[in-house]
Amino acid sequence: MSEVERSAAETAQSPEPFSLAVDAMGGDGGPEMVVAGLAVAADRHPGARVLLVGDEKRLRPLLARHPKAAAICTLRHAPSAVSMEMKPTAALRLKDSSMRMVMNAVAGGEAAGVVSAGNSGAMLALAKIVIKTLPGISRPAMAAISPSMKGDVVMLDLGANVACDWRNLVEFAVMGEAFAKAVLGLPAPTIGLLNVGAEELKGDEKLRQAADVLRDSPLAGQFHGFIEGHDITAGTTDIVVTDGFTGNVALKTGEGAMKMASGLFRQVFTSSLAGRLAYLLVRPALERMKDWLDPRRYNGAVFVGLNGVVVKSHGGTDAEGFASAVDVAMDMVTHHFNDGIRTRLGNMPSLTTNRSLTDVERQPAA
């Protein structure tokens, strides 16, 4: 009996699936950070049921130290773990790792979603092989929330797919809409395609074709059109759709700009007596801005387009940040995120038709 079949058999004897399966062994902070994060999450989600998978000898004393986490967790031993340096191909061969076992729990219907702070490449590979993509979705994408002048913005893909065609971009728009509805609570989020200009003739063929399909789809009323890089932080649209290469560059550029701004503020307010006095005057406002931009609030990138909820926590986060990743996963599970994608894809015959035509066009000549 395979691990997935064993998981499904155990689920049949259980009254209801776990809300989440959590990999306790991922991240720089290891099980200590994960269990402390679950203690924070337990206050926010007291009704959650969590399958906690990892080294039992290390986890039992930690759960005893965090009774709130223990109250929502069921512990399962995993003999091995995927290291942060392990290649995805090696992780796929490791059948008894904590990361593999949480994926098996979702694939077998034992849990609705996964949260891990572990190795990103291994996590994506395992999710694609074990949990698999939703029908109608060719590739999963990585989505996350970031701040803007008008509120939180969903952006995808952030690096899972370096090269994309127009179909992938349309699928990302569908998945991003479901994500924004589930996590941000927006009834009709607006969608923008990231481009080098807002005019319709800008960009390459894949962008223009994706835009044409979206204008002729049930998402037409929510499709804003092309947007530029500055529109991300301006909050011009609720969802920013792009390929993984551009998305990852934009993400890292934003992180770099934030670090530079933080360093300049520190330099200005510590370089002179006048600067230190000025800091005392503006300190309350700076504290509010720091809380608003706190990266831990936005922790929890999601691999969307899979047959289950898969949330990747930043490996270097702390307990508060891990709890935020749990928040994202719980929102997606509670609001039946994947049902929204299935419904939307079912109402997009133009996407299906255009895909078929493209597939035919790509067949080699006889």
TrEMBL record:
It is found in: Cytoplasm. GO terms for cellular component: cytoplasm. The keyword Membrane does not apply. GO terms for biological process: fatty acid biosynthetic process; phospholipid biosynthetic process. Keywords: Acyltransferase, Cytoplasm, Lipid biosynthesis, Lipid metabolism, Phospholipid biosynthesis, Phospholipid metabolism, Transferase. Homodimer. Probably interacts with PlsY. Catalyzes the reversible formation of acyl-phosphate (acyl-PO(4)) from acyl-[acyl-carrier-protein] (acyl-ACP). This enzyme utilizes acyl-ACP as fatty acyl donor, but not acyl-CoA. PANTHER family: FATTY ACID/PHOSPHOLIPID SYNTHESIS PROTEIN PLSX (PTHR30100), PHOSPHATE ACYLTRANSFERASE (PTHR30100:SF1). NCBIfam families: plsX. This is Phosphate acyltransferase. It comes from Acetobacter aceti. The gene is plsX.
